[in-house]
Amino acid sequence: MNIDTNMTAPQKKFLFIRVSSLGDVLHALPALATLRANHPTAYIAWLVEAPYRGLLYNNPDLDEIIVIRTRYWRKNWTLKTLGEIRDTIALLRKHQFDVALDLQGLIKTGLIALLSGASLRLGLNRKNCREPLNTLFSHKRAGFVGKGSHVVDISLNLVRLAGGTAPTPDPHPLTVPQNIQEKVDVFFKDNPDLKAKPIAAINPGAGFPTKLWELDRFAKLADRIASEQGLHILLAWGPGEKPMAEQIASAMTEKSWIAPKTSIQESIALFRHIALMISSDSGPLHLCAGMGIPTVSIFGPTDPVRNGAYGPNHQVVYKEQPCSFCWKKTCAIVTHDCMQKIAVEDVLQAVKTSISKFVNMTTSR
């Protein structure tokens, strides 16, 4: 096949494929910024699942956000669904993309790249793909990025295939519509005492059970942060997690505040008010890291070197075990040692380090 690989032609059209999830979309933003820096006149579209489009709101590196609903389609096989799939393929082909970059490495994203009709399909190295069969759909594959590298580096490695020598700039700040910010600001106006001191947010939830730290430890940690470090405690929660926040609040002796229910964009607006995030490996952790907010993270089954908060102002706490970084949703040895062996004192020391190095203690945001 004769494929045009000239990446310098004017108005080159790129399709950027990273459809999910929250952390993965955020971790792809440095790659987007690099692509734009190397191709300032190009047309760049990002293909993303509907729940995560808010992360890309008003991003100046993008010309278009194309929403796809593969999660919905898998659960709803109807004639209407088939029509929607057909229309999505037609929309992608109508753009006549020159290059499709598949940063996800799944069979479904490889198939999407193929169906887009892009003249050149760039993909991850087989060893970096979550589903190695993904490589069947790419014309060119990036070099292997080995152990000890972050997922951000894997994405940047792929973008370099698209040409250019510009260094990676800082991604643009996450933004939200003004009405969203105003809606969230009402919570702080209704709770004026909360902002009397810098705010430490605690997010106890996570995507699967082996990532969870015990709630009573979070409560003890929160009490010590409030009493010893002088921060106010905001308990954050995601879908189905409010009882976790309520349990922590009821176990605490110090005052705390439970955050309101928020969408992704409302979470961005909420976290603009905090000085520090303490969290397991979760979406809110990466959201705060993407906003430049200092974080302290608690890791067990997932590797913080590969999937931790990206950037210089973050502290991570983990206790490496023989079975660490198994990536399993159920603990094979039942005892959850990788999380159980992390003591309150371990996390508190990381909080103290973060406060001394990164947190502005003179005012809340």
Automatic annotation (TrEMBL):
EC number(s) reported in the record: 2.4.99.23
Subcellular location: Cell inner membrane
PANTHER family: LIPOPOLYSACCHARIDE 1,2-N-ACETYLGLUCOSAMINETRANSFERASE-RELATED, TETRAACYLDISACCHARIDE 4'-KINASE-RELATED
InterPro entries: Glyco_trans_9 (IPR002201), LipoPS_heptosylTferase-I (IPR011908), LPS_LOS_Heptosyltrfase (IPR051199)
Transmembrane regions: none
One function term, GO molecular function aspect: ADP-heptose-lipopolysaccharide heptosyltransferase activity
UniProt keywords, alphabetically: Cell inner membrane, Cell membrane, Glycosyltransferase, Lipopolysaccharide biosynthesis, Membrane, Transferase
Species of provenance: hydrothermal vent metagenome
Enzyme class per UniProt: transferase
GO cellular component annotations of the record: cytosol; plasma membrane
Membrane topology term: Peripheral membrane protein
GO BP term, example: lipopolysaccharide core region biosynthetic process
Pathway per the UniProt entry: Bacterial outer membrane biogenesis; LPS core biosynthesis
Protein name: Lipopolysaccharide heptosyltransferase 1
Catalytic reactions on record: an alpha-Kdo-(2->4)-alpha-Kdo-(2->6)-lipid A + ADP-L-glycero-beta-D-manno-heptose = an L-alpha-D-Hep-(1->5)-[alpha-Kdo-(2->4)]-alpha-Kdo-(2->6)-lipid A + ADP + H(+)
